[in-house]
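Re: beginner question about structure tokens

> Can someone show what the tokenized structure looks like for a real chain? I only ever see the sequence side.

Sure, here's an example I had lying around. Input first:
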Amino acid sequence: MKIAVIGDLHYPSSKGLDENAVGSRDQFFSTYMDYFLNQEAAYHISVGDLTNFGTKDELNEIYGYIHPYQRSFIHTLGNHDLYSQTREEVLNQVGMKGNHSIESDEVHLVFLETAREQDFDRWDGWISEEQQIWLASEIEKSGDKLMVVFAHHPVYDTTLRSNMRMLSIEPSIDIWSILSKKKGKGIYVNGHNHMDSIVHKENWTFMQIASVLDDQSVRMLEIKDDNCQITSVYVGTEQSRQQASIISHAIDHFQPFPDGVGTTLE
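And the corresponding structure tokens:
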């Protein structure tokens, strides 16, 4: 099974942008999403902040790029996706589920909602007690089969920058005590920190993906016989890098972080 994954996309509304920024936005995201959605994969996944502020027009426009490809696209919501609307409103608008899982012969996939809802003061992650119970049951259900968890926020003190303020799931929530009960291998995939990072801890691999405006890459997971090969497909060009720079400096609620682009090991 192949899975294509992207980090924080931050697709912005055209409101407040000048003509040059709007033109760059339209061409950049159209080209990038075409590359992403043309990757052969069983699932195409966004680990959140697909939009820059979660407005109805942002969601309608980015899903307007996605729907014609008729892919199995799954979007775990990020904090930016939930600034303008409630979680229920966003999920209803885009036709997505919240916390859910998909099981196949090869792998147990889990999609975990970690973003706070319409909270402008806290952009770290939060998982309710009910979600913790659900995640523990999914881990038990998976047995020794490979499990891959997709979420927006990292687990505290795993990937790069995840031990910094607001850059992980709330540290007081002991997610590791739940994950550590996993039999067999687990992979946890997240965005949020705009920095590539791969960290191994016991039987878990934590994989963090940089933002698309900083790094025009698609992360590919190829799962076979309880093993997962992780590769990064760079699809950027000089033109797309220039467009990304124009967009990054024109939109609110986003700061470029070029240092987030990782080495091969990251």
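Each token stands for a local structural state, so reading them left to right follows the chain. Residues 189 and 207 are 5 Å apart (CA to CA).
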